[in-house]
Write a structure and sequence with these properties.
A five-stranded mixed barrel has the order 2-3-4-6-5. The protein has two helices and six strands, in the order αββββαββ.
Length: 132
């Protein structure tokens, strides 16, 4: 009876914790290798956008594509080689430059967690815009 009270719980504990072990090999520095790797993107990533002083602004990217109207009112999309981007434009003077079918270059930052009513494209907050 004593064996059942001690060995069974110990065996159960070992069985449960064995699933949590990382079987990745450890290199000479003592750091485990990642269990998986990501593949490179199929298309080139957007370029870093230079700021006014010539240095790259952290997180800013430049996108070039064609403007299209979204299915919801006041929703504007940019279609480029990487997909659809919902343009979030807070400056009305920039918004006035946009026309469906126009080729534009925008600088800004992706906002993937931003909730919108447009339901299309990845939200992208625009800080500057050039009509090509």
């Amino acid at each position: 009876m004593l064996i059942r009270k001690t060995v069974v719980p110990a065996a159960l504990f070992l069985a449960l914790t064995a699933g949590c072990a990382n079987n990745a090999p450890i290199d000479a520095g003592g750091v485990p290798e990642p269990a998986f790797s990501s593949s490179a993107p199929a298309s080139a990533p957007p370029s870093l956008a230079p700021s006014a002083d010539g240095s790259a602004e952290p997180g800013s990217v430049t996108l070039t594509g064609t403007v299209s109207a979204g299915v919801e009112p006041k929703c504007v999309l940019l279609k480029d080689g990487t997909g659809d981007h919902q343009l979030i434009i807070r400056d009305e003077s920039l918004r006035a430059k946009l026309r469906p079918g126009a080729s534009v270059t925008v600088v800004g930052k992706a906002q993937p967690g931003l909730m919108t009513t447009c339901q299309q494209g990845q939200p992208f907050e625009v800080t500057s815009l050039t009509v090509n």
